[in-house]
Design goal:
The chain folds into two domains: 34 residues, no CATH class; 220 residues, Rossmann fold. With 262 residues, the protein is an alpha/beta fold. The structure holds adenosine-5'-diphosphate and magnesium ion. The site of adenosine-5'-diphosphate (ADP) has 12 residues, from strand 3, strand 4 and helix 2.
């Protein structure tokens, strides 16, 4: 098997038994590559401000295992959000590769990226980004409205609403279905955002400081809710956090220092 095929297969989530020859020429298993949900190789990103180049990521490489919780930590300004945005295809790197489930995603076209974000990735941000004119239930349904044709949405509307209500129940908001975001607390808004991120049954959840705007008590409720739901739905989680206590609960912690993984 060529190296390229072995690499692609290892990134497609299936175990690859690579073979090598021993001293007598027999083919023997070299190693069993672990299935990776995501593999990042040599990522570079530089911002340009008024003609000045600000290098942020200087060759970031990492592997994310399927079904595991990975925390990304680092000082403010170390490039955590930049990295998360690249992983979520919200922005493109200057160079390097991002692979997800055997597919290179950093160079996908706009339509394919949109589809990946709508169907496979769920995202949560520090400031919730709920639409102020919509109710909690409608906010949770937005990804489905965006993803489907009007006709398909209409046909499936009851099924989608049932899933939205079930998720809102799981995050403790079944008594807030018809409230607007300005009638919710910060913790409630973030729990609504969690339900919205999970409505399309994603496989990978990307979260940028989801507790960063909450007090400790509400932060703990949000984390408990998030991790419980992700476990039940067997999600892979990549979470940026400045909270070392949260990072301690992760299966893997990635520390960004000076634009690389320390
Ligand atoms: P963190 O999330 O670790 O606090 P960020 O990824 O937000 O860090 O930012 C890393 C660096 O990149 C910072 O110096 C920030 O000012 C700069 N930066 C982030 N986004 C942009 C942008 N859109 N344009 C220019 N500079 C940016
Ligand atoms: Mg940030």
């Amino acid at each position: 098997m060529s190296k390229g095929i072995a690499l692609a297969k290892s990134m497609s989530g299936k175990e690859v038994h690579e073979k090598s020859r021993n001293s007598t020429g027999e083919r023997v298993p070299l190693r069993i590559a672990k299935p990776h949900a995501m593999r990042v190789v040599g990522l570079h990103k530089c911002y340009r401000k008024k003609g000045v180049e600000v290098p942020v990521l200087k060759g970031v490489s990492l592997d994310i295992e399927e079904g595991k919780f990975t925390a990304i930590v680092g000082h403010s300004g170390s490039g955590k959000s930049t990295l998360l945005h690249l992983l979520g295809t919200l922005d493109a790197p200057d160079s390097g590769e991002i692979w997800y489930d055997g597919i290179r995603i950093d160079s996908l076209g706009t339509k394919q990226r949109d589809r990946l974000r709508n169907r496979t990735f769920g995202m949560i941000f520090q400031f919730y980004h709920l639409l102020p004119e919509l109710t909690t239930l409608e906010n949770v349904l937005v990804p489905r409205m965006v993803e489907c044709s009007a006709w398909r949405y209409w046909l499936s509307r009851r099924m989608y609403a049932d899933r939205a209500k079930e998720l809102l129940d799981r995050v403790g908001l079944s008594h807030r279905l018809n409230h607007k975001p300005n009638q919710l607390s910060g913790g409630e808004m973030q729990r609504a955002a969690i339900a919205r991120a999970l409505i399309s049954q994603p496989k990978l959840l990307l979260a940028d400081e989801p507790t960063g705007n909450l007090d400790r008590e509400n932060g703990e409720v949000v984390m408990e809710t998030l991790l419980g739901l992700c476990r039940d739905e067997n999600l892979t989680i990549i979470m940026v956090t400045h909270d070392e206590e949260i990072a301690k609960t992760a299966d893997q912690t990635i520390r960004l220092v000076d634009g690389v993984v320390a």
